[in-house]
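Reading a protein record of the kind used here takes little practice once its layout is understood. Each number in the token line that follows is a code from a learned vocabulary of backbone shapes. One such record is shown here in full, so that the layout can be seen directly:
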Amino acid sequence: MAKCLSRADCIISSLEIGSNIGYNEIALQRLYPNIEMSVVEINKKAAEECSRIPNVKVHNTSIYDFDETEKYDLTIVNGVLIYIDQEKLDLVYEKLYEYSKKYILIIEYYNPTSVNVNYRGNDGQLCKRDFAGEMLKKYSDLDLLDYGFIYHGDKAFPMDDFNWFLLQKKKR
């Protein structure tokens, strides 16, 4: 998370879509001790676990149903867009964009063209694509601030292979 946000400044609030149990919120709190965080998490057990993290407001609902007026310095999506139905992807992009005051962090499987991947024996359940590129085309006031790759063989922070993209709204 530190590497992903190294070019961002003054983050005091965040919203994550699909937080699971809150690993990103724990990392954000270490980077920004006074950050106020909100999450949208559809899984009740994961939402309950995430609610134990200080300074996290949990919305146990679907991103499709989430609606509020607050805006955040940073909106985050990590390993969620790959599961979103293509027909509803624009709605999720819109929420990431509309709830952000400054930055959008996308951490997902990347592929230059849309490709469905067999996931746990099921076809059509996971799609790799250029999510950041699609958002940059959709919203003309977004810029690519930074990007990188997370490697599964990293001994310090073992994860899956992901690409991350930090987008920034142009200052008005």
The CA atoms of residues 21 and 50 lie 5 Å apart.
